[in-house]
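Record 1 of the preview.
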Amino acid sequence: MIIKHKKSYIFLYGLLLILIAFFLSVNKKTLIVEMHNIYENYMSINPGFSSARNLRDEGGYIEYQNIFSKAQSMLFSIPKSFAYKIYNSEDHAIEHINIIIKFSNYKKILEDRSFSISRGFLDNPRSVNGIIQYQDKEYDAKIRLKGDLGDHWLGVNRSSFQVTLKGGETIFGMSKFSLHKPRARQYPYEHAFQNTLRKYKNLGAKHDFINISVNGNHWGIMNIEENISKEFLEKENLKDSLVFRFSDDKKWLNYDRQFQNPYPFFRYSDPKIIATVSNHKKYFEDSIQRSRYTYVLEERLKKDHSYLFATEPHMRALLASLLWNNIHTLANSNSRYYFNPYTLKLEPITTDQGMFSSYDQLSPIDFDSMSDVYKQVILGLKKNMEFDQYFEFINSFGDDLEEELNKFNHYFPLDKYKKNNVIKNNISIFNENKHMLEDWLLDFNTSPTSDINPRRPTKFEADSFNEHLHARHYDDGKLLIFNLLPDEVQLNKVTYNGDQLNVDPIVIPGFTQDSYQPHVVETNIVGIHDNGIKVFSTYQGNARVIDAFPTLVSKGIFNPLLQETVQNFDFVNKVLDGSWKVSVGEWIVNKPIVLSGDLLISAGTKLKFSNDAYLIVMGSIKSLGHSSLPIIFESNDLNWKGIYILGSSAAHSVVQNTIFKNTSGVNHGLLSLTGGVNFYDGNITMNNVFFDSSSAEDSLNIVKANVDINNISILNSISDGFDCDYCQGKITNSSFDSIGGDGLDFSGSVTELDSLTFNNIKDKAISVGEVSNVYIKNIKMQNIGVGIASKDGSRVNGTNISISDFELHAAMSYSKKNYYDSFSSLELLNSTIQGPNPFLSQTGTRLIVNGKIIQEQDINVENLYSTGVMKK
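->
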């Protein structure tokens, strides 16, 4: 038996050698493409495994990536695959979509593929019209080839596509997604890394699997990954905001690959200069978003801009990648950055992580290979010296990893079971060398590692430069010109919509190492002009033309969270524990109060704010009034902006026996909040709090917090009363009266409501949306537009509910946003409903009142929100 086993290996290796000898006589590029075609055709039959490597890899073993190991695994898998196909004639309850692309359009995709094969990379692929068929329904879509390198498209079948559905349609809750073969997304390592990191509240790519056919040709099981979009952010419990990418693919993908020794000092695609925003045309219609874009681009030029980045999620991503012994996901090409409108900081969105591998021993962190973003994060971390919390994260990172590595094994039963022994070993090594890691972080500096002055490009190198300059236009007419070369470049002219401007030709000095000082050119192109401005230049006889970046904002770029002003107020004093305390008395506040730390306000204090004044506390607030000596926040004139408490998971704010009057909303500089009183993150306790006459979008807005709220009253709100987003907790014994919008509005929250009254509510008394779960009892509503609405995958269960004098309906269940997979439901028991036409249940939702199922019907939701009490 042993002899036969050896002979079988000899035969296989001999066969491989014969095949290799044959293929050596064929053009190498043609050979590679044909090998991919053969392999992908085989994989399209769903042979029971995800890739050849995963037939043998038990978790992080790189040796199984060589071609001989893969070929051997494939050959020995054939009998198992044959048996798998016989005994598993149907796939494991996996969804299926068919992509239909008419011949003329599919030909364009094939042409893009052929051109990419000849160049070695994908550049500017064309989007074509197509149809996605799913569950007896057809969806119009835009489809294009995707993936920078050949692993995505060398095989004509199972190429990677990017799909964007038209008309706001979604499937699987996604309007925009990418399709890849599993190995093009380093399955299962990318999936396991991102899913594990997401459990710690980091943002990362979301993956699943689906059966794909293209024009009726079966492509087999492929990875489906949701692309970043407004819908993606909302499902992550995030407010829609800018998503940045630093740098682009032009240098590493195009320029560096054309030349054996590319010029090393070319600032082409420099991540400190180049920053783009997804779907910027839409976002830049909003002036506050354009201001935030300007802020990020300007601050990125500063040597120290660590304050731009949220430390915790970046450190989790960094340490997880170091544990993985692979920082591929941290590269500029693989990471995006969400601008959080509440913290005014960037948070990472990681994608495309590779395989983990073991450390033999811990080597010094290679800071030079790390992106500038993480260098800045480490620089900021050094200021606070907070290391321990991140090492606690290291110890728990591998807890569920093995489960994630094998999560989709039912689709690929022949894949080798993956263990997490490698990560456990790496965790042990990190713990043994904790102080060494801390020392490396402490010793890190952002100074250049070399003092070598960049040399002048040769004539051959000069001929290769696609661009000489980078230009930014501002709405006051200024053009900021950045030289991408360390040598003088001639700026010849500037045009706008083809017309030459009155700008004299000038020489732009070359950049100096570690400096990003632009040259300013004055023009008369004032206002917003995102397109049409071109800059012409010459260098060593080579003429080039570039487009200016979208217009930036010259005024109002102010981050109030970075400007502490508390030292300007004599009645606010620092106490021994580092917190702040307001002296008891009546105080006039003519300017904003901004402080970092916890704030105590004692009973009997009255704060009277001018129109432009507000209070920002980056910590927690203790507003501890008494029933006979309440604390009063009010305007010194018509209204004032309000308060904002920016907390943390450990912060606990307590507000009791407190009155808030005449707030208009905290809006200043880059900060634009919807509430007159705002809380973000942390734990919040309220008791006997009164909100009166707010002209803000919400009298009270609480986001991403644990709440325990009792006995609050919201009166005379021009819009919504209380907007509770992504919260958990309870609200009891409270009243809402004379509200111009919704009384209580929930998004992504899990809450209990008990003993609430609603009176004179124009829109919905209780609006529950975005996959919330709300449990209500002992509720009384009268003189309202709508009583209770459950929408967008939410669940509402109520008992002892009284609803009367409603204008539209007492109870509604419907879907406004089709990207939530789960259906909406509303069930009321022991409830009294008085009035005509009390119920409305959209097809595909559920409404049950006192045990009776309300018949579903088709509803035009757009009409609901365009007329009557629900008009927005």
